[in-house]
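Hi there, hope your week has been kind to you so far. Thanks so much in advance, here it is:
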Amino acid sequence: RLVFVLCAEERGLFLLGDPAYDHYLAISTLRGQLAEDADQLGDEILERRYDAWARLLSAFRAVYAGIEHEDLRLSAMGGSLFDPDRYPFLEGRAAGSSWLDTASQPLPIDNRTVLLLLTSLQVLEHPRGALALSYRALDVEQIGHVYEGLLDHTVVRVSDTTLGLKGSAKNRYPTFDLTS
């Protein structure tokens, strides 16, 4: 979802540049806003705030269903990728519930985690420094390659404090229970 929205925003397909969109929904500007908060307030504050995840969910809903407001209009794009009912767990809803009549209780994903996620998608780290990535020039094949690469990753809820390590061919996702 993030890759597709970043591509669409940078190609001018969404409302990037509109002050209301940039401040409340844009994903391209969110990393900068969170980084500024981190610089001014510290990472500890970002770890106690949870509004960035809700903003991502709002952006995904806006892409899916559109926005019709006097200050902001966005055509509905639909599609199964952005369908809130396809992945209700992202919004903290039960499987089979409808986004139209069931209140969301977004997962408690803190702003620092969202900042790290967006940084990993928007900044290329290399020995000579960091380089901001542009999604504007990606062609459809490259977008598909990025998407397929992301499909190799999974999320698993663990019950105890756990340390995840970089894997190898033998053990792709090594973890150790730190509570023992």
